[in-house]
Task: inverse folding
């Protein structure tokens, strides 16, 4: 690990990382930037192995910088360091190209240990962030399994039921008889473990079959 870019607008935090980054990577030198502009200047002058990037910066978002570095400096290992631990920020950062995500609330020595995991090929993730990622993909799998449990015809019936169409209207729109629609509805309710139209609306939105807006 050579140079480490530290993009952090809080002076105390930035200086702490500059002075202690060698505890994670003994051969590394920390170089600090308080803004995106300063980070761009350093990126033009130096080669970096890793970038530790805050999200809220005076002249923009650190996530945008990560996205840019992923394109222009793909060899830099980008890690977010922030106070934000919600899904929106976490997944926006990961989609932008961040390979790690640390939460500032954690003790700094623990963050040092999490950064060192990079040397063993492990992504530096705060425990709470790792749990959110696992929960997210677990939820996605459940939704996928629920959707896959429905046939294409059943999904079409559910979409129309969730949108408020009556059984005769659903039958007319799909070219079926009302009794056939009733049979499909019964099967759908059984598969999704629901019993009312209101629950069908909720399931339709959850499964991405209807737009809630």
Result:
């Amino acid at each position: 690990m050579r140079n480490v870019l530290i993009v952090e607008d809080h002076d105390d935090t930035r200086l702490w990382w500059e002075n202690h980054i060698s505890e994670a990577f003994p051969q590394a030198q920390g170089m600090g930037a308080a803004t995106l502009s300063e980070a761009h200047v350093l990126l033009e002058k130096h080669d970096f192995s890793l970038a530790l990037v805050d999200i809220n910066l005076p002249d923009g978002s650190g996530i945008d910088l990560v996205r840019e570095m992923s394109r222009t400096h793909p060899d830099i290992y980008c890690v977010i360091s922030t106070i934000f631990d919600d899904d929106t920020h976490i997944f926006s950062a990961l989609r932008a190209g961040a390979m790690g995500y640390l939460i500032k609330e954690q003790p700094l020595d623990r963050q040092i240990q999490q950064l060192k995991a990079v040397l063993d090929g492990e992504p530096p993730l705060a425990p709470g962030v790792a749990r959110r990622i696992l929960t997210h993909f677990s939820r996605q799998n459940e939704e996928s399994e629920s959707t896959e449990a429905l046939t294409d015809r059943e999904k079409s019936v559910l979409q129309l039921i969730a949108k408020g169409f009556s059984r005769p209207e659903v039958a007319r729109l799909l070219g079926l008889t009302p009794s056939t629609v009733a049979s499909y509805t019964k099967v759908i309710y059984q598969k999704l473990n629901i019993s009312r139209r209101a629950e069908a609306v909720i399931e339709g939105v959850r499964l991405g079959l209807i737009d809630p807006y």
Summary: The first strand starts at residue 3 and ends at 7. The two ends are 48 Å apart (CA to CA). The CA atoms of residues 97 and 163 lie 38 Å apart. Residues 127-149 form the longest helix (23 residues).
